[in-house]
């Protein structure tokens, strides 16, 4: 590639950072980083009624959380309306655009006639070749682009391959509204050009827009970008991802589902992009390996179970102190020092940060514990006195080490003619109030001698 690579991510701040948008941002960021180029962020906030500062903050926060840093200053599209109008005027001056004085009533009648004739509804070019002097003095008008009327437009898409569009299917779309404000189609093309964007990596729902934008780019004589239209993300049922498939916003994966950013980064990378059978790919490896050649042409399917499994891997590999910092606010009465001591065994079982926090809760629970339903059944089944024998054996030792405790409990199980599980389960229920926990000997060591004996005694 001769010119430096420049990509952009351009969300509309009308809501949260959608999981599909996050993947688009990721692919743009990786492509730029792989080629040593620039990844730019543009906030398309021209819809003032729906754009909010809260949404802008949420989008930027979500991108930061994923570790996607952007080059140069963030561009806000609403601040560039003057420049957009300037380009529209250049197109008027060059004869590549024209003023359309058609009234709303005339346009509605045109659409009704097209509906009745079962024709595609598009502007019929009625002012394309008319002299503006034919309009009443002071009449409002919009500015429309003169799009090609014949021939074929063709794009060599880096993902989709060669895609063509008949020029006759384009209409002369609006560049400036009657109040002088620019339309999305004009603003996007001008901003991409002025920002020096060389590669447009976006969802394939924008593929039709590419041909409309290409007509404008060519009318201005600007360099054409490389297009790469990525198939959308679908749910496990093959339907387009929607609310019924679960969380859609990045913030929900972080806050409600307890996903680590590196796990979501890795999972989104593998949604529609592959490198052999490799599932786990670090940020550094992703930058080194990423290319558009490996982006698939078919929609990818979002699998929450795969994400949870991958998240579990990243939790097990995460630094214990970092996990303590994240989990401490999620646990009532948490002691960070004890949590740090327990983290190596706690994180082995967790597939989410919430599971991690829930699994640690027993360490800080206040006596007497209120066992959950499964734990209570384990205690009821041990009513013949095994709890008392466990207490007696453990109380007789002063060597409160994992190795010694394991010897004592296994010996008790042998003496009673029971499998270890028949002893460990009521112990677990008494010590944690739950039917699941880290290994029972780890639990004894973490709780300490006095607390462990007191909890067991509470259930005698």
From TrEMBL:
Domain Aminoacyl-tRNA synthetase class I anticodon-binding: from-to ranges: 322-458
PROSITE patterns, A to Z: AA_TRNA_LIGASE_I
InterPro entries, per database record: aa-tRNA-synth_I_cd-bd, aa-tRNA-synth_I_codon-bd_sub2, aa-tRNA-synth_I_CS, aa_tRNA-synth_I_cd-bd_sf, Glu-tRNA-ligase_bac/mito, Glu/Gln-tRNA-synth, Glu/Gln-tRNA-synth_Ib_cat-dom, GluQ/Sye
Record motif 'HIGH' region, residues: 11-21
GO cellular component, one term: cytosol
Motif ('KMSKS' region): 240-244
Pfam families in the cross-refs: Anticodon_2, tRNA-synt_1c
Spans annotated as Disordered: 114-137
Keyword Magnesium part of the UniProt annotation: no
Domain named Glutamyl/glutaminyl-tRNA synthetase class Ib catalytic: residues: 5-308
Primary location class: cytoplasm
Catalytic EC class: ligase
Residues that, per the record, bind ATP: 243
The enzyme's E.C. designation: 6.1.1.17
Keyword Ligase: yes
Reaction catalyzed: tRNA(Glu) + L-glutamate + ATP = L-glutamyl-tRNA(Glu) + AMP + diphosphate
Start-end of Basic and acidic residues biased regions: 114-133
GO annotation (BP), single: glutamyl-tRNA aminoacylation
Record localization: Cytoplasm
Subunit structure: Monomer.
Entry function: Catalyzes the attachment of glutamate to tRNA(Glu) in a two-step reaction: glutamate is first activated by ATP to form Glu-AMP and then transferred to the acceptor end of tRNA(Glu).
PANTHER family: GLUTAMATE--TRNA LIGASE, GLUTAMATE--TRNA LIGASE, MITOCHONDRIAL-RELATED
Entry's family note: Belongs to the class-I aminoacyl-tRNA synthetase family. Glutamate--tRNA ligase type 1 subfamily.
Name this protein carries in UniProt: Glutamate--tRNA ligase
Source organism: Alterisphingorhabdus coralli
The gene coding this protein: gltX
């Amino acid at each position: 590639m001769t010119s430096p690579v420049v990509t952009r991510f351009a969300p509309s701040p009308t809501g949260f950072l959608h999981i599909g948008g996050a993947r688009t941002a990721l692919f743009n960021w990786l492509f730029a980083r792989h080629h040593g180029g620039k990844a730019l962020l543009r906030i398309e906030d021209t819809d003032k009624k729906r754009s909010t500062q809260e949404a802008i903050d949420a989008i930027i926060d979500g991108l930061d959380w994923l570790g996607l840093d952007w080059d140069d200053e963030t561009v806000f599209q609403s601040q560039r309306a003057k420049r957009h109008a300037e380009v529209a005027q250049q197109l008027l001056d060059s004869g590549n655009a024209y003023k359309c004085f058609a009234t709303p009533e005339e346009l509605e009648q045109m659409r009704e006639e097209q509906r009745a004739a079962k024709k595609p509804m598009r502007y019929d070019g009625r002012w394309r070749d008319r002299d503006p002097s034919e309009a009443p003095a002071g009449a409002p008008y919009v500015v429309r682009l003169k799009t090609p009327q014949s021939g074929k437009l063709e794009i060599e898409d880096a993902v989709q391959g060669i895609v063509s569009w008949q020029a006759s299917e384009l209409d002369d779309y609006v560049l400036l509204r009657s109040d002088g404000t620019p339309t999305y189609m004009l603003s996007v093309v001008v901003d991409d050009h002025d920002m020096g964007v060389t590669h447009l990596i976006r969802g394939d729902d924008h593929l039709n827009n590419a041909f409309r934008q290409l007509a404008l780019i060519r009318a201005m004589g600007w360099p054409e970008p490389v297009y790469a239209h990525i198939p959308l993300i679908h749910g496990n049922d093959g339907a387009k991802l929607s609310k019924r498939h679960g969380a859609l916003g990045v913030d929900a994966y972080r806050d409600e589902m307890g996903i680590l950013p590196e796990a979501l980064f890795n999972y989104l990378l593998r949604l529609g992009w592959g490198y052999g059978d490799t599932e786990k790919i670090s940020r550094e490896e992703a930058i080194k390996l990423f290319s558009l050649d490996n982006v698939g042409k078919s929609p990818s399917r979002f699998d929450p179970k795969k994400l949870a499994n991958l998240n579990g891997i990243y939790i097990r590999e995460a630094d214990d102190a970092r996990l303590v910092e994240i989990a401490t606010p999620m646990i009532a009465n948490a002691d960070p020092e004890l949590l740090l001591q327990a983290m190596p065994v706690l994180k082995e079982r967790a597939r989410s940060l919430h599971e991690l926090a829930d699994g640690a809760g027993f360490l800080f629970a206040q006596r007497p514990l209120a066992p959950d339903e499964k734990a209570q059944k384990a205690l009821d089944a041990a009513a013949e006195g095994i709890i008392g024998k466990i207490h007696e054996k453990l109380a007789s030792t002063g060597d409160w080490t994992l190795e010694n405790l394991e010897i004592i409990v296994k010996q008790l199980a042998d003496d009673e003619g029971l499998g270890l599980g028949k002893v460990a389960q009521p112990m677990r229920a008494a010590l944690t109030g739950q039917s699941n926990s880290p290994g029972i000997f780890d639990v004894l060591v973490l709780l300490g001698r006095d607390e462990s004996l007191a909890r067991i005694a509470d259930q005698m």
